[in-house]
Amino acid sequence: MTTTAAPRIRRTPLSGGFNRLWVAALTSNLADGIGRTAVPLIATTLTRDPALIAGLTAVTFLPWLLFGIPAGMLLDRVDRRIAMAVANSLRFAVAALLALLITSGSLTIWWLYLCVLLFGLGETVFDNATTTVVPSLVKRDQLDRANGRMQSAEIVVQNFIATPVAGFLFAAAIVLPVWLTGSGFLIAGLLALTIPAAAARGLKAGASPDAAGHEAPRPTLGHVVAFLVHHRFLRSMIILTSITASALAFAQGSVVLLLLQTFSVPTALIGVVTAGVGLGALVGALISSRLVERFGRGPIMFCSMLVGGIGLLGVGITGNVVFAIAAYAVGAFGVAVWNVPWGALRQAIVPSDMLGRAMGIVRTIGWGLTPIATVLGGFVARIDLRLPFVIGGGVVVVLTLVAVRLLLSAGSQEPAPETLPEGTGS
Question: Which pTM does this prediction carry?
Answer without folding.
Answer: 0.68
